[in-house]
Amino acid sequence: MGSYQEIRDELLKRLREPAPGRVQILSGPRQVGKTTLLLEMATEFGDRATYFSADSTEAQMSGWWEQVVRVAKERAYKAGGGLLLVDEIPYMPDWSRRLKSEADRILRGKVPLHVVVSGSSAIQLGKGARETMAGRFERLRLFHWPAMALTRCFHLTPGEAVNQFIQSGSYPGGQALLGQPDRWRAYLRDSIIEPAIGRDILNLEAVRKPALLRQVYAVAVGHPAEIVSLQKLAGELAERGALETIAHYLQLLEEAGLVAGVRKYSERTIRQRSAPPKLTVLNHGLIAAMGPAPQREQAPVRWGRWVENAVGAFAWNAGQTVCYWRAEPLEVDWVLEGSWGAWAIEVKTGAYRPQDLRGLLEFCRRYPKFQPLLLCNEGAEASGRDGGVRTQSWASFLLNGPSKE
Q1: Are residues 60 and 157 both part of a single domain?
Q2: Do 151 and 123 share a structural domain?
C-alpha cells in the first residue's frame, strides 16, 4: 500500500544508502502529503538538504535549475553527503531532459548527492521518466489516505473515521474546515479539483476539448460505483465527442487520481477493453464537493452506491488490481487481486437474502482462485455466514481490508 508512513519509511531507507543513487520520483494526487513528505526529509537531513519548488515564478527564469543544482552540490561536498529535493518538477520547462543530464553528471562525478523530485501529474511524470529517465530513477507513489490513517493522524474513533471516509473523503488538508461546509467545498474546488484538471491535465497533456474533459469529470463523479457505457456517458454530455476521446479523458482522470474507469474482469484482455467501465471516484471528497452526502435512512439506494464506491476506492488506493464482473443477470461488485489476495466482493447496505449472493457464488465457481466475501451492515453478518460465505461488515473492511478469519 502506498500509505504516507510506508512511503516515508521506504524513502528514508533509500536515502540512507550510499550516494549517488537513482533519482527518486515521488508522485500522487494533489493534497495527499507529497510536499509535507519532502519537507520532512529536509528537516531530517538538516543542513545537508536543499529544498526548492518548481511551481514558482523563479523556476521559470533562465539559470534557476543550474543555481539549484550548484547550491545542492556545494552543501553535499561540504557535509560529506547531501540531498536535493525538488517539488512539482513537471512545471520546470524541459524537466526530464535537464534532470537526466544532471543525474548523469552527478553519477559520473560521484557527487555524494541524492535527488528526490515530486509531482502531482502522474501523466507527465510517468511519460518523462519512461522516455528520458529510463534506468536512472525509482518511483514511489502516494495514494489517497485510507480511513485508518484518519484515526492515527486526527485521533478519530474507527467509527468516526469510516463515516468521514464515506461522507467527506480523506483529504488531510480539509480536516480543519469540515465544520464549515461552504468553505470546505471551496477548498476542495480551488485547491484540488481545479488545479488537478486545469493545471495537471490541461497544461501538461494535449487535450483538444477542455470543456469535454470537465464534463466527463462531472458526469463520472455523479455516477459513483455505476457501470456506464461510453455511449451512455456521451449521451449525458452537452458537448459531443468521439468515444475514443471520452475513453482517453477517463484515463487522464484516473492518472490524475480523480476517477477510475474500472474494467470488467475477464481472462481475455480484448473482452476487458470492450466492456463498459465501472466509474469509481477515488476520494469521496470529490463527490461531496458537488453536494451533501446521502443519509442512510432517507436515501438508502444512493447511500449504498457511496458505500460500494468507498470499498472499490479503498482497494484501488491500496494498490490492488480492481475489476468488476457481470454476466446478465448476475453481477459481482468488486474483483480484487494483489497483496490482499484474490477476492470477489459483494456489498450489501440493506437486508439481503441468500439468492442475492448467486452472482458471487457463480463467479467463484467459474474462477476458483477467488474467495467470496460479503460486506454487509454491522450486526448482519450471521445470514451470510449461514449461507457458507465469508462475511464481514463493510465498516471493518474499510478500516482493515479483508478479514482472514
Answers
A1: no
A2: no
Same domain assignment for residues 248 and 222: yes
Q: Are 232 and 344 in a shared domain?
A: yes
Q: Is the pLDDT of residue 133 over 70?
A: no
Say how many domains are in the chain.
2
202, 243: one domain? yes
Q: Could you tell me if residue 405 is inside a domain?
A: no
pLDDT digits (tens, 9 = 90+) for 17-48: 999 999 999 988 888 999 999 999 999 999 99
Look at residue 340 and tell me if it is in a domain. yes
Structural domain ending residue among the three candidates 108, 123, 141: 141
Average pLDDT over residues 255-263: 93
**SS3 per-residue string spanning the chain:** CCCHHHHHHHHHHHHCCCCCCCEEEEECCCCCCHHHHHHHHHHHHHHHEEEEECCCCHHHCCCHHHHHHHHHHHHHHHHCCEEEEEECHHHCCCHHHHHHHHHHHHHHCCCCEEEEEEECCHHHHHHHHHHHCCCCEEEEECCCCCHHHHHHHHCCCHHHHHHHHHHCCCCHHHHHHCCCHHHHHHHHHHHHHHHHHHHHHCCCCCCCCHHHHHHHHHHHHCCCCEECCHHHHHHCCCCCCCHHHHHHHHHHHHHCCCEEEEEECCCCHHHHHHCCCEEEECCHHHHHCCCCCCCCCCCHHHHHHHHHHHHHHHHHHCCCEEEEEEECCEEEEEEEEECCEEEEEEECCCCCCHHHHHHHHHHHHHCCCCEEEEEECCCCHHHHHHCCCEEEEHHHHHHHCCCCC
Structure confidence at residue 1 (pLDDT)? 47
- The reply to whether 78 and 151 lie within a common domain is no
Domain ranges, residue 78: 4-141
